[in-house]
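Title: Comparing notes on inverse folding

I've been comparing how different people in this forum approach sequence design from structure. To keep things fair, I'm posting one structure and asking everyone to reply with a full sequence. Here's the target:
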């Protein structure tokens, strides 16, 4: 009876530790640390959404974010946005995103981001988007993107108008 109780407690502890690591905001895999993932809610018929996060490489060798997947999206790409000749342009990074050794790279609105395309359902505020990021050296990493409000800005906070 005592062995059964110990086995049950051990199994429960294992499940709990797995559960909390999936929902932790910071994830460490080797030299790569993924911090503050978030996304915005999307309108009901939207077919795209952006994912944002910070990636720190504490190692002595560069790594590269090469791809991403998510069950909620038919396709996921790593994108860059930049202004060229006064026009905002977005493009996929065919070779992925470099994460230089000893550096931190931020994926944020208006710059590098994870682009979720062909959404099967809208992103709803207060829920989570599960995704897998694939690094050249660190390999696949499952993360959860908390969904902030539609008007959220960097860090998932809603923009406020203070001009009154």
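Reply #1:
Here's my take.
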């Amino acid at each position: 009876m005592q062995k059964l109780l110990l086995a049950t407690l051990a199994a429960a502890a294992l499940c709990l530790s797995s559960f909390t690591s999936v929902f932790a905001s910071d994830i460490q895999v080797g030299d790569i640390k993924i911090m503050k993932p978030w996304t915005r809610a999307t309108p009901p018929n939207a077919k795209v959404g952006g994912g944002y996060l910070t990636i720190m490489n504490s190692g002595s060798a560069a790594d590269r974010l090469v791809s991403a997947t998510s069950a909620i999206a038919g396709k996921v790409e790593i994108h860059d946005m930049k202004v060229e000749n006064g026009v905002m342009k977005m493009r996929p990074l065919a070779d992925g995103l470099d994460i230089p050794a000893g550096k931190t790279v931020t994926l944020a609105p208006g710059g590098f981001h994870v682009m979720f395309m062909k959404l099967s359902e809208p992103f709803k505020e207060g829920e989570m988007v599960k995704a897998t990021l694939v690094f050249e050296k660190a390999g696949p990493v499952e993360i959860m993107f908390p969904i902030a409000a539609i008007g959220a800005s960097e860090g998932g906070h809603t923009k406020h108008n203070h001009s009154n």
